[in-house]
Amino acid sequence: MGIYDRAYYGDDRRDAMDFFRGEGSATRTLILANVAVFILQILFRGSLEPIFSASTEAISSGQIWRLFTANFLHNPRDPFHLIFNMLVVWFAGRELEYIYGRNRFLGFYFGACLFSMTVWFLTEKAIHPGQISRAIGASGAAMAAMMLLTLHAPKRTVIFIFFPMELWLLMTIYVLMDGFRLFQESQGIGGSNVAFAGHLGGVLFGYLYHTFDFSWLDPQRLWNFRRKPKFRVVGSRERNEGTSRSGERRTVKFPTGGTSTAVKPSVRVSPTVTASDSFERKVDDILMKIAREGQGALTDEERRLLEEASRRARSKRENNF
Q1: 216 shares a domain with 304
Q2: What is the pLDDT of residues 56-86, one digit of tens each?
Q3: Which end of the chain is more exposed for a tag (fewer CB within 10 A), N or C?
Q4: Are residues 74 and 213 in the same domain?
Q5: CATH code for the domain in which residue 183 is found
Q6: Do residues 310 and 190 share a domain?
Q7: What is the mean pLDDT of residues 302-321?
Q8: Which residues are 157's β-sheet partners?
Q9: Three-state secondary structure call for residue 318
Q10: Within this chain, do residues 60 and 162 fall inside the same structural domain, yes or no?
């Protein structure tokens, strides 16, 4: 990922569309989408949930789109369900979008939605066979984002109920609590309307994404691959002489003799690293350092490089207009 994919390489001008671009734009868009759906749930007074929520019965019958749409629904009678999830998405999402870029973060988020809800579905079918269960909410995707951020910056300090706590400890507490409650649920002990399996599915997805680097989840990359045209490389002699004007195939004899390099030259190309590539790698390293340790850990030289990257970005935009 080069400097031109970074958030600071956006347009400095502010207008009505600024909400949907620049640093954190994907995170803000996701939050806006969840809030908009929440408002629609209130206006339609419960008619959306039977159609788009994750239902074990409906998914088993083939309505697999519910594994995705359920992530954008929340309990309309409990606004804190939405508020808490969106606070987590806002906290972790901006950091991850800064690290991975807008498109890769969206791919990660959508993948977390599907994966966490699938884990919930399979768990419900296993521990409650024959029972119809339903789930809504972005908790699984939010937990995936928190897990991925924790793996990038485990020593990052956050305030948890007025107490400072490092991210690795906070996530450990959440995972142990959800794991214990899920175990109780599997034993028929207690009762809760919280999808603990979905939370743990999100945590697992965050771990897998960090471990195996699912870069193919980039929506733009998947779209470009789908639209990639098929082609066949044809030699110039075959193209020019191998087919007659009438379309009939004919044999073409090539002259013999000479050295092998006269027919098929062998050229050795040494890879080169340009100054621009080296500069972009340095900037990427600095951005990763900010994600791990915060801006306060930067040296004067690293701050100077960031300022130079910003200057080049502005210069490039001016040349394009």
Answers
A1: no
A2: 999 999 999 999 999 999 999 999 999 999 9
A3: C
A4: yes
A5: 1.20.1540.10
A6: no
A7: 73
A8: 166
A9: helix
A10: yes
In angstroms, the Cα distances linking 244 to 236, 239, 252 are: 14, 10, 11
Beta strands 54-55 and 157-160 are unpaired
Instruction: Say if residue 163 is in the same domain as residue 306.
Output: no
pLDDT digits (tens, 9 = 90+) for 159-201: 887 889 999 999 999 999 999 999 999 888 877 789 999 999 9
- Minimum mean pLDDT among 72-86, 122-136, 287-301: which range? 287-301
**Angstrom distance (rounded) from CA 103 to CA 184:** 39
Total structural domains in the chain? 2
Domain membership flag for residue 239? no
Quick check: 163 and 79 in contact, CB under 8 A?
no
Give the CA-trace dihedral at 25, 291, 162, 175, to 10 degrees: 90
Q: What predicted TM-score, i.e. pTM, was given to this entire model?
A: 0.66
Could you give the maximum distance between any two Cα atoms of the chain, in Å? 88
DSSP string covering 52-98: HSEEHHHHHTT-TTHHHHGGG---TT-HHHHHHHHHHHHHHHHHHHH
Q: Does some domain include residue 41? A: yes
